[in-house]
Amino acid sequence: MPEKKSKCETKSDGIEDKCVDSETNCPTNSVQINALNHESRRSAFSPYRPSTVLTNLQRGNIQTQTPTNWPERSIHQLFVKTVDGYYHVIREMRLEFDIICIEDSVCNKSPVVHVEHRLGLESWCVRHLYHYTYHKFLDSRIANRIGDDSINEWTRALLLINGDLSTAWSARKELIEKGYLKVLSELKFSEVILTRKPKSGDNFSHREWLLKYLMKSETISDELITNELRVTLEAASRYNRNYHSWSHRIWIIKNLFNNSYEKLNCDLVITKCWLETHVSDYSCYQFRQFLFTYIHKNFIPTIDDNSDSVSNQ
């Protein structure tokens, strides 16, 4: 069969607008664009310059090496580093610590929780953390590794969980005597433990030892005394009828007040205001009874003698 021929009408710009069959004079569906194939014209999709193939090193990328020995990242390290970070970041706000009651780990995440100035540890890992750190602490004590800061980390993790561990408090006393810890930072750490264990006799005994140790080299400032009085009231507020807290307050009056009548009278006013919101706390009544007896024993005879001398004049 003879092939059908078609003729195309060409416009002045070189683009064939439509093609018509020569026999039927019907337009065909094919549209040819000669301008794209024209040498003097260039398509918008054609590259302006030839592409170059570059390797990663030619682009400036640096080849990384995968470490063969990964560093040990235990729960206690994450826990201790978080506490250290809070000590450096939070200065005016007081850090609080507690254990969050979560029996099972439902997702793969850190058991250390921190919100604002509050730090928490999920309860499912407490037993594992305490068992691990306790054995590490004993190994460090046997090896007498005091200067490498390991005992400081182990005892810190242990005491945050169990604030009545006397062995850990004794180890921290050795660190202070050898100059590895500062007294003021240790007082701050002890205050953090009191937020969870407000009735810890070993903790209050440790604070008394710290203040005695500080008195050997310098005079206790009024700001530090005020802070100690605040700590005792906060501990008494957290735990009703807190015998150890009020006993520590009595120790402060006997050893740090220097028989100041103004300070004693001020403490009477403070405890009276506190007692108005804690009516059933009879430990505070006993403390106030001690205050009245102490004032009567040390100041009332002096006042009576002065009044007699004035009357004689």
Please give a structural write-up:
The protein is mainly α and 313 residues long. It folds into three domains: 1-34, no CATH class; 74-218, Serine Threonine Protein Phosphatase 5, Tetratricopeptide repeat; 223-313, no CATH class. 52% of the residues lie in helices and 8% in strands. The protein is built from eleven helices and five strands. It has helices spanning 75-89, 126-143, 150-161, 166-177, 183-194, 201-215, 222-238, 243-256, 261-277, 282-298, 300-312, and strands at 6-10, 16-21, 96-100, 112-115, 118-122. It is elongated and about 105 Å long. Belongs to the protein prenyltransferase subunit alpha family. It comes from Medioppia subpectinata.
Task: Walk me through the topology.
Elements lengths: L5 E5 L5 E6 L53 H15 L6 E5 L11 E4 L2 E5 L3 H18 L6 H12 L4 H12 L5 H12 L6 H15 L6 H17 L4 H14 L4 H17 L4 H17 L1 H13 L1
Parallel strand pairs: 3-5
Antiparallel strand pairs: 1-2, 4-5
Helix pairs in contact: 1-3, 2-3, 3-4, 5-6, 6-8, 7-8, 8-10, 9-10
Shape: elongated
CATH topology title of the largest domain: Serine Threonine Protein Phosphatase 5, Tetratricopeptide repeat
The CATH first-level class of the largest domain comes to: Mainly Alpha
Rg from alpha-carbon coordinates:
41 Å
- What separation lies between the terminal Cα atoms? 154 Å
CATH architecture of the largest domain: Alpha Horseshoe
**Overall residue-averaged pLDDT value:** 77
For the secondary structure, the number of strands is 5
Quaternary structure classification: single chain
Pfam family, one: PPTA
Organism: Medioppia subpectinata
Family: Belongs to the protein prenyltransferase subunit alpha family.
Keywords: Prenyltransferase, Repeat, Transferase
